[in-house]
Structure formats: C-alpha cells, structure tokens
Amino acid sequence: MINAAASVVASIPSPSISYFDIGPLRIHIYALCIIAGIIVAVLWTNARLTKRGAEPWVVIDIALLAVPLAIICARIYHVLTHWGFYFGEGANPLSALYIWEGGIAIYGALIGGAIGAWLGCRWTGIRFWTFADALAPGLLLAQAIGRFGNWFNQELFGWPTDAPWGLEIDYPNPAWPIGLPEGTLFQPTFLYEVIWNVLGVLVIVWVGRRFRLQWGRLFAVYLVWYSAGRIVWESIRIDPSEIYLGLRSNVWAAIFGVVLGIVIFFVQKRRHPGLEPSPYVSGREWTAGQAVQSQNTDDFVDVSEPPTSEAEGATATSTPASK
Asked: Bias regions of kind Low complexity — which residues (predicted)?
C-alpha cells in the first residue's frame, strides 16, 4: 500500500470548494466548466465554418439541437455505466437526476451531440461532415476545460501514487477507496486528460492545415486521438464502473472510438478524394447577399457578384476548408 504523506510537499491540492452561493442561487463550478467549454466550442466552430463560407452564426441553429441532446445522452450513458451507484442497494435512484453533482459521460455526449448535429445540419443545409470537421478542435478544447470540473468535484481520480504530482483528495470523501489511509495521493487523471486534449488541439489544427482534411477526416483524427488517450486514463481510474471481459465499459467505448475514427478516415478518403465544393449540401447554398434586405421592400436583395468566368466560378466552389 502506498503511503504518500511524505510527498505531500510536492503534491497537487484539490480546490476547497465545488460551488458558491449568490443569494438563494447555488452555482456549481462543475457546471461553469461545462458551460465555458460549450461557449469556446461554439465560438471557434463558428469562426471555422464562417471561414469556409457558411452563414455567420449558423452554428447556433445547430447547437440548439446538439447541446441539449448531448447533455441528456451524456447523463443517460453515465447512469447506465454506473448502474449500481444509482440503483444498487442503499442508493438513491433520484440522484440519477442530480447532474450538478457531476457525472456526464463524453461518449454519451458524442452520441447525443452527433444526433442533434445531424438534425441541425439537415435543418440549416450545412454538410454534416463539414460541421464535424469545423467542430473537432473546439470540441477537444471544450473537453479539456470541462475536466477541471472533475478537479473541483474531487472525483474520477486514478490509482494511489507517491509521485510528486499526486493529487490530494479531502478525507473522508464518498469516492475514497476503502482501506486506503488518510493522506494517500492519487493519479490526477483530470490533468493527464487536459494535457492530452490540449496537445490534440494543436495536432488537429496542424494536420488540418498541412493535409487539408475534409469530408469528416479531421473529425476522425479527433476520435482516434481522444479515444487513444481515454483508453489509458480509464485504465488507471478507480471510480466504480461496469466491467465487461475484464475492462471498464469506457475502455471498450474508447477502443470503439479509435476503430470508428480509423474507419471514417479511410472510408471518407475513398469516397471523397477531392475537396468539398461548399459547406452546404447541393441546392442549400448561402451567399452573403441573402442577408441584405432592401430598404424599399420586404424582399431580400442578392448583392453578391457572380463569378466573371467559368474558371473563377470553379475556383470559388473549390475553396478548401478552414485551416
């Protein structure tokens, strides 16, 4: 058994609070981290889509469907993979609804968010894979920001350790492993994932610029990068989880994420060897002139100028994705 009390001088302290009150309103820092991540992802995705030629802030229309579905499915996924925690002996089933206490699963969020994004793209005319590629770096950065919520909640930490960067956890703690003495330090899995995700953002941005990955292949890189890291972090976490064939459920989900990313990359590369002609599906294109309204009528006036030649028109429809 590891007694890490001697290395506390070099350890990582956990925050002393996880919420604060403003009058009768209780603000959970976990929720603020999630909200901050969503805002960052929306702003960055908007910039990348706009650079591709999409209508400014069309991402809001997509997010109105994607974000709620992502949060709902993230909670459902977490509850299903931690069933005993909410419905086991002595558990409070109503706590399955207490999302402010923590407990949303990224892979559930990806499933729900993908469904919502697909519906939003159908609504707005944006190509689903164009949106996914634009979202990729912002999504990974949002996940890095969201992990700080686990730090404030003092949850989802890893094995005991005597490393200088061991994480201090308040004792007693509902997540404290039975049998470990007070003063034990733990692997800061939240920090490992933050570092991994930030590095992944740099990789995704560089790969997108260097190879002009489109048609969902940049999102495929995100899936492989993020999931490869999750295989490691999930393997050293000690919070309760359903076990299948000797592996935690989220390890299996991460393995599936790597495989799915590889499949998407090569299938899309074979199906679409060229660049996307537009961020919009055929027949749903948007031009800046559609947003200019006549002062004399209620009709929209198209002030955009058509290409002056076939060559110029071809160039206009083959602009590469945002870098």
From this structure: 305-323
Q: How far apart are CA 110 and CA 262, in angstroms?
A: 16
Binding residues: 147
Measured in whole angstroms, how far is the alpha carbon of residue 85 from the centre of its chain? 24
**Exposed/middle/buried for residue 228 (C-beta within 10 Å: 0-12, 13-18, 19+):** middle
Is the pTM for the entire model greater than 0.90? no
- In the structure, what pLDDT confidence band is assigned to residue 289 with cuts at 50, 70 and 90? low
- The encoded tokens of residue 321 equal 């994705």
User: Quick one: how far is CA 142 from the chain centroid?
Assistant: 6
Instruction: Judge whether 220 lies within some domain.
Output: yes
User: Rounded to 10 degrees, what is the CA torsion of 21, 69, 208, 218?
Assistant: 140
Query: The domain containing residue 45 runs over which residues?
Result: 5-282
Count how many domains the chain has. 1
Section 39-53 average pLDDT: 97
Strand partners, 26: 21
pLDDT of residue 290: 58
Is the peptide bond preceding residue 188 cis, with omega within 30 degrees of 0? no
Per the domain annotation, does 110 fall within a domain?
yes
Q: Can you tell me the mean pLDDT for 142-161?
A: 96
| Within-domain flag for 302 | no
In a domain, 314, yes or no: no
